[in-house]
Amino acid sequence: MEAVSIGILGLGTVGGGTVTVLTRNAREIARRAGRGIEIARAAARDYRPERIEGLNQIGQIGTDLFAVVEDPSIQVIVELIGGESPAFELVMRAIETGKHVVTANKALIAKRGNEIFGAARRRGVMVGFEAAVAGGIPIIKALREGLAANHIEWIAGIINGTGNFILTQMRDHGCDFAAALADAQARGYAEVDPTLDIEGIDAAHKLTILASLAFGIPLQFEHCFTEGISRIDPEDIANAAELGYRIKHLGIARRSAGGIELRVHPTLLPERRLLANVDGVMNAILVKGDAVGPTLFYGAGAGALPTASSVVADLIDVVRALTTDPNHRVPHLAFQPDELVDIPILPMDAIQTSYYLRLTALDRLGVMGRIATILGEEGVSIEAIEQRAPAAGETHVTLVMLTHRVIEGQMNRAIARIEALDTVQGRVKRIRMESLSG
Ligand SMILES: NC(=O)c1ccc[n+]([C@@H]2O[C@H](COP(=O)([O-])OP(=O)(O)OC[C@H]3O[C@@H](n4cnc5c(N)ncnc54)[C@H](O)[C@@H]3O)[C@@H](O)[C@H]2O)c1
Ligand SMILES: N[C@@H](CCO)C(=O)O
Ligand code: NA
Questions:
Q1: pTM above 0.95, yes or no
Q2: Minimum-distance ligand 1 atom for the alpha carbon of 14
Q3: Ligand nearest to the CA of 210
Q4: I want to staple 394 with a disulfide (CB 3.0 to 4.6 A). Which of 72, 86, 315, 390 is the partner?
């Protein structure tokens, strides 16, 4: 059978990797897909030809993205430019002209996916986005198909490679934040705007997508709570280690009474948990289904070839399903589109978790007692407390506490009251803790 013609938009880290994988593994890909995949055209503002193995396999390379989308000989558009615009307009135009789409763009899917999938459904075309979440890990496929029998209870994942790389470097080498970030950028892990990685926005994009697939809810990026890693101090990493914990940047989506928790933040995890030992650029997603129990998916969360692995898997899926009836394909968000239920996302002060607290207080009789009283009055019970003796000549001590589970709203009130004491210096540092055992 004749090869399927595709057009690639963007020839950067992921675009280049996709060309390489399609070229290197062309024969095996064709054996799996049933037909060859031919890169008829590609377009990019710029690219590094010396970095792209297989570049000579591309029929035609230009700079006009829309010209590729309008080309009637192309059946599938692979969007790898990133960002919301013009990616959204390109994808919508591709759909309008009856082309299937494969994308690695989580910002686009998290923010505009409801519209994109609606348009794709009306036009009867497929949109693949496996590469958008956790790079090379086939987590979308797992949630949509492999775990389809389950009532999913919760998901917790390390879903930003750059952030995990930085935290790992800080812990292992006492390396500073800026140097670790520069290294992640040089390796092609980071987003064009790395604040998306560091501030947790990229992880929030991915978690939004995972939560939809797991719970059958529309994409609701605007309701995801997001806290980044830029305020994690080496001191907190060391304190956590002393207490038997590691700090990981987690995305957590959980069904609980009254709604769904959707939150990205630094998290203390007991050091023996598998997730606590996922280091460097590696990602991992723990999914708890009622029938299967906990399942863990681990692999490279970023980088050229791992991400291309997912892009090409989607391409193979599209090629295999080209002639199938659109109504009988696996739904984009795992649930039939008219079965998505708009369950509310819980506000952050309604969630329940335990906490690591660090504060600096005057080393004077009664100060500790006052803090403990406030915590008790707000319903916060302390699991462990450590006091760092003041250095010679110092008047203040550092207190590190671990609490039992409590509603975040109560913790906020307790922290506000503690910060208002004149015996307490500066802010109370708070990092959430999860056991991930239930
Ligand atoms: N880098 C990774 O490890 C990784 C992993 C998973 C998903 N992603 C996603 O894949 C997408 C691409 O990321 P990347 O790291 O390959 O980016 P990149 O910056 O390395 O490459 C982007 C490519 O698109 C081109 N481009 C961008 N905007 C353009 C425009 N307006 N007109 C013409 N060309 C344009 C650039 O010239 C370049 O060739 C993003 O959505 C990103 O979030 C990246
Ligand atoms: N910037 C992203 C790329 C993969 O999505 C990360 O570091 O995880
Ligand atoms: Na994936």
A1: yes
A2: 16
A3: 3
A4: 390
